[in-house]
Amino acid sequence: MNSYPILIIAQKEVLTHLKNYWVVLVACLILIMNIAITGILGTFFSTELDPRAILLSLIHLHMYIIPLVALILSCDSILKERELGTLELFYAYPLQSYALVMGKWLGHNIILFMVIVIGLLPISYHLYQLEVLLTHIIGFILLIFALGAVFNSLGLLLSMLVKERALAMLVSIIVWLFFVFLFDLGFVTITIMTDGKISPQLLGGLLLLDPVEAFRISAIMYLLPVDAVEIFSLNNGMLQLSTSIVATLLWIFAPLAYLCYKSNNHG
Amino acid sequence: MLKDHSLVAENITFGYQKNLPIIRAASIQFQAGQITALIGSNGSGKTTFLKILSGIFHADQGQLFFQGKSITKKTQYHYKKLIGFMPELLQLYPNMKVQSVLFFLAKLKGCSKNKVTEILDQVDLQKHAHRKVKALSKGMQQRLNLAQALINSPEVLLLDEPSNGLDYTSIISFYAILRKLAAGGATIILSSHQLGEVMEYVDLIAVLRNGHIILHDHLSNVFSQANSTVETIHFYFDKIIRPEAFAALSRQHPELTSVNETGITVALEKQEIGRFIVAAKEQGLELIDLKIKHKTLTELITNIS
């Protein structure tokens, strides 16, 4: 694979989003939400907070906000190129057919990584002071980033398949609502209706069909292994840290593979 | 048959849907150093054919050759390094600066930054290098679009309706650039529906109809064909034409189209003129003058396509 054009396209994406303050704005937004939800400011006036509570709050905040940020970033990305005529133009350039898709995917992931790191920096410092292991903090940032990468892949897929920008936005919101709220509701409904008739193994497998749930499971199991077993009844059957990470990776690379295939068959 | 530096299409067939070809068994050879215009009515397949020539689409049947070598999906990478393509609908990143856009595209084509300065000079945009693309006029944006196609010094330049939306001055400077490139040995192929403009600036025309190439010739040959094709002849006579004389003449020459007091207009071939004059004399009409109207190139091409 000639990766140089992919890097050039990724660089352009990053520079464009830096120049139009997208990175700064979203990073500030995440930063403010992190500070607000974890109540760090409260520690100036009262006793220290429990790091477990902070981590749980952060997991739940990011499972809502990061998918939305990633979808907004990428849902009209290829669509814009099509509207400008540059998508077609690049097909006449000496590039691999998947260079544009891969370049955008890489660029958006770099942007997401920057946004996540900037947004989590003060809180990470605070967690470190509360004696949370550095490896746990870095692992948590990487898990959030992986969640962003999943929705970046899904957003790019949308921008390739949908022909209008308004429709792409609408479908993105539906995708976000589905994975963040509706899947959960559906899962609870199934569990109640079947009244324990479905094996926990199968239920665990079903849960991994939602990348947001896969993130939540892996984050809880990685950061709070004791709570994972005692409170959340995780770490049994299919619900292992390894399976949830594999599920997340599949969610990242399956849409990307389809996008590359689709780019190769554009004619 | 395959000359160096020429692009050859052999029996190209292509359709967006199966069993519905847009291009049908099109064969044509483009020569280096010449500007060829693809002409045809809307939907005749000009844009599709250009996209096949640029490697965007792959022919369902037939083959493309460049410099004697077949262009396939596997070999097109090298071919694409040698071509420049300008789509009809292209708006290069409006929020970026002219120079930044060209830097980005040059890097993608594997060209150096120095080439950008040279190209900006060539398309006369050097003064606007630091302006945003959206701040440029339509003519300037078209020149920027041309610049991206020229950035790799292409041997084949493919332009889809390049003069759309340009005023007359911009068209002149646009074709001056193309002429210079052709003089340097580039093969230039453009699609256009502006016949007047084509007649003025191109060397060859290829007429497409329903996906077939029905004419491919030097413009000078097409011009002489037009000059040898008479559309109508108007005969002026010495006296008023009586109805019975007109009736007699129209019996002999059904192609007689109109009449006024002293003249008759007839759609005749040149060799028929003598016979018509004799027939008029038999009706007592003495010829004073005649005016031959040849078919214009536009009429000729329109009739063909």
In short:
Chain A has 267 residues and is mostly helical.
What does this structure look like?
- The complex is a heterodimer of chains A (267) and B (305).
- Chain A has 267 residues and is mostly helical.
- Helices cover 79% and strands 0% of the residues of chain A.
- Chain A has twelve helices and no strands.
- The radius of gyration of chain A is 20 Å and the shape is globular.
- The two termini of chain A are 21 Å apart.
- The model of chain A has no long low-confidence stretch (mean pLDDT 88).
- Chain B is α/β, with parallel strands linked by helices.
- Chain B has eleven helices and 14 strands.
- In chain B, helix 3 packs across helix 4.
- The longest helix of chain B has 16 residues.
- Chain B is elongated.
- Chain B starts with 6 loop residues before the first strand and ends with a helix.
- The model of chain B has no long low-confidence stretch (mean pLDDT 87).
**How much beta of chain B, percentage-wise?**
25-35%
- The strand count of chain A comes to 0
Share of residues in strands of chain A: under 5%
Kindly report the oligomeric state of this protein: heterodimer
Describe the largest sheet of chain A: none
Key features?
heterodimer, A: 267 residues, mainly alpha, 12 helices, B: 305 residues, alpha/beta, six-stranded mixed β-sheet, 11 helices, elongated
Secondary-structure topology with pairs:
The complex is a heterodimer of chains A (267) and B (305).
Chain A: H1 4-19, H2 22-38, H3 51-74, H4 77-84, H5 86-91, H6 99-129, H7 134-161, H8 165-194, H9 200-207, H10 211-223, H11 225-230, H12 241-264
Helix pairs in contact in A: 1-6, 2-3, 2-6, 3-6, 3-7, 3-8, 3-10, 4-7, 6-7, 6-12, 7-10, 7-12, 10-12
Chain B: E1 7-14, E2 23-30, E3 35-39, H1 46-53, E4 61-66, E5 69-71, H2 76-81, E6 83-86, H3 98-108, H4 113-122, H5 138-150, E7 156-160, H6 168-183, E8 187-192, H7 195-201, E9 204-209, E10 212-218, H8 219-227, E11 230-237, H9 243-252, E12 256-259, E13 263-266, H10 273-282, E14 287-294, H11 297-304
Parallel strand pairs in B: 3-8, 3-9, 6-7, 7-8
Antiparallel strand pairs in B: 1-2, 1-4, 4-5, 9-10, 11-13, 11-14, 12-13
Helix pairs in contact in B: 3-4
